[in-house]
Every structure is written in structure tokens, then in C-alpha cells.
């Protein structure tokens, strides 16, 4: 049960962080999303894979080592 509570809290934090740019500067987000929609899908895929790798590395570092 503690793991489920932790997971739901984590999802809540992600939703809060993801929504901040839309609340803080919606016009800039519209412009950025317009530019994003015009990008080559292959470039978006590479950016997504790099972001996923960085996230996995961060999770590994925080869970398996004493660095942080």
C-alpha cells in the first residue's frame, strides 16, 4: 500500500511540474508547441530517447547509489 501511495504522489508531482509552463506563460507555450509540431519526427524521437535515458539514469543514481 505504501508503494501505491508513493506512486500516486509521484504522478501528482509530475502533473504539477508539467502544468507550470502552461499556467505561467500560455502564449509562449502556444508558440513553442507550434514550433514543436513542425519539427521532424525523427528529431523528436531522438530528443525523447535522450530525455528518457536521462530520467532512467537519474532514477538509478537516486535509488542505487549514495551520491544523492
Keywords:
68 residues, mainly alpha, 87% helix
Describe, in plain words, how this protein is organized in 3D.
The chain is mostly helical and 68 residues long. The protein has a domain at 25-68. The chain has three helices and no strands. Helix 1 packs across helix 2 (26-37). The longest helix is centred in the C-terminal third of the chain and has 24 residues, at 41-64. The two termini are 26 Å apart.
Q: What does the largest sheet look like?
A: none
Radius of gyration: 16 Å
Number of strands: 0
What's the end-to-end separation, in Å? 26 Å
Query: Which spans of ≥5 residues are poorly predicted at pLDDT below 50?
Result: none
Helix count from the secondary structure assignment? 3
List the helices and strands and how they pair.
Elements: H1 2-24, H2 26-37, H3 41-64
Overview in brief:
With 68 residues, the protein is mostly helical. It is built from 3 helices and no strands. It starts with a helix and ends with a helix.
Amino acid at each position: 500500500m505504501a508503494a501505491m501511495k508513493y506512486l500516486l504522489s509521484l504522478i501528482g508531482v509530475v502533473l504539477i511540474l508539467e502544468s507550470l509552463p502552461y499556467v505561467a506563460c500560455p502564449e509562449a507555450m502556444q508558440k513553442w508547441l507550434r514550433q514543436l509540431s513542425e519539427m521532424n519526427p525523427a528529431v523528436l524521437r531522438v530528443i525523447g530517447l535522450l530525455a528518457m535515458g536521462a530520467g532512467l539514469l537519474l532514477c538509478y543514481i537516486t535509488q542505487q547509489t549514495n551520491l544523492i
